Amino acid sequence: MATKTAEELLALGLRDRWYPLCPSGTVKRGELTRIERAGEQLLLWRDSAGIVHVQEDRCPHRGARLSLGVHMGDRVACNYHGVQVDGDGVVVSVPGSPGCALEGRPALRTFPAQEHAGAVFAWFGLDESAEPTPLQVPDPIAGGEWDNFLCYVEWDAPYGYSLDNLLDPMHGAFLHRNSHTMFGGKREAVFQIRAIDDGFVFEKTDQRGVNFDWVQLTDAGAQWVTLDIPYPDTAGPGGAFTIVAALCAINETQHAAFFWRCRKVSGWERDSWRILYRNRLEARHWAVLEQDREMAEAMPLDAWDRENLYQHDIALVRMRRLLRSEARRQAAALAAPPAAPAPAAPVPAPTR
Questions:
Q1: How many whole angstroms separate alpha carbon 198 and alpha carbon 223?
Q2: pLDDT tens digits, 273-320
Q3: Residue among 88, 54, 114 at smallest CA distance from 67
Q4: Which of 45, 227, 276, 345 is 20 to 30 A from 304, comparing alpha carbons?
């Protein structure tokens, strides 16, 4: 991949990570879909078996947009000169010049892709030829005894603003104080950070199960934020309302956000929860999310340069330090010259 500075990586997303790109339903059979994610122009399409492919939206011939081309089942044809590329990025046909050297070559950057919990994920590797880390999704969106609804949004704000918001439990008692779930509890608190494998938990020391009282950040091949919102019995079966969130920068000033709203339910309780959610709770949740959107989009782009943090913000400080350290490491790796090939072993002299 092209060299990027640490600041660019922080704005567009670290590499060697899986990122959610869009809801699965966005990529329809027989169609070509163009999106921008992590500063990359991407083409998404499904082959005749329904498998999703994520590739650079750039014909390897002259750089025209493949998304303006033709879906041919197991390949995509550029509309400019007809060059055909398959799901592995291999040029399979050059109709204007059959047998040319371009045919049979892997010439289009192709991103490893998977689908989970109603979303398309892609691996953005630092080394484009290296195998990706396995994608591990949190239990609440992995199926089994859990059920979920995916809420997808695109906001006109840097993705870091939403990450800050998710790691800030205290805003629930103020910004969302008039919501149907976050009206209770104290408006002052002392927080602590508790280390876990591949991340940390940020939690109130004197309140649990009342409001937005804790949040967990996990970064292991993908970055996940998990939190619980207490639910009354009137909200149906399943205990606390769990939110699993993942973010993906679109560019420096826009991002896509995925919020899976989860309950631990199965059988008849699952059916009851889904009906209640659709008929009564979903609109309320969108209203809460709209409060977050308005706050994030109204913040100035230099908000971080002029902020004054205090004890409630120690999770932001921890998270930003971790991201900056990794961004500097990745930027240095991208800027390093390629390793010289090892010298060939000397050929032994023939014996007489």
A1: 10
A2: 899 889 888 998 899 999 999 999 999 999 999 999 999 999 999 999
A3: 54
A4: 227
- For residue 220 the two structure tokens come to 């292991």
Strand arrangement of the beta sheet that strand 214-219 belongs to: 146-155, 254-264, 241-251, 223-229, 214-219, 199-204, 191-196
Helix (H, G, I), strand (E, B) or coil at 333: helix
Residue matched to tokens 């027989």: 30
User: Which of 20, 221, 224 lies closest to 138, judged by CA?
Assistant: 224
Residue 172's pLDDT is 84
CB 220 within 8 A of CB 16: no
- Cα dihedral 322, 324, 330, 333, rounded to 10, equals -110
Strand order in the sheet with 17-23: 17-23, 119-124, 113-116
Domain 26-124: CATH class, spelled out: mainly beta
Residue position matching structure tokens 């109204």: 298
Residue with tokens 């939206």: 57
In order of 62, 103, 292, the CA distances from 89 in angstroms are: 15, 11, 39
Q: Where are the beta strands (DSSP E) in 98-141?
A: 110-111, 113-116, 119-124
Q: In which residue ranges of the chain is CATH 2.102.10.10 found?
A: 26-124
* Torsion angle in degrees (nearest 10) through CA of 318, 324, 329, 333: 150
User: Which residue, among 183, 212, 219, has the nearest Cα to 198 in the 3D structure?
Assistant: 219
pLDDT in tens, 28-46: 999 999 999 999 999 999 9
Q: Which fold has domain 139-329?
A: Naphthalene 1,2-dioxygenase Alpha Subunit; Chain A, domain 1 (3.90.380)
pLDDT at residue 273, rounded to an integer = 86
pTM equals 0.92
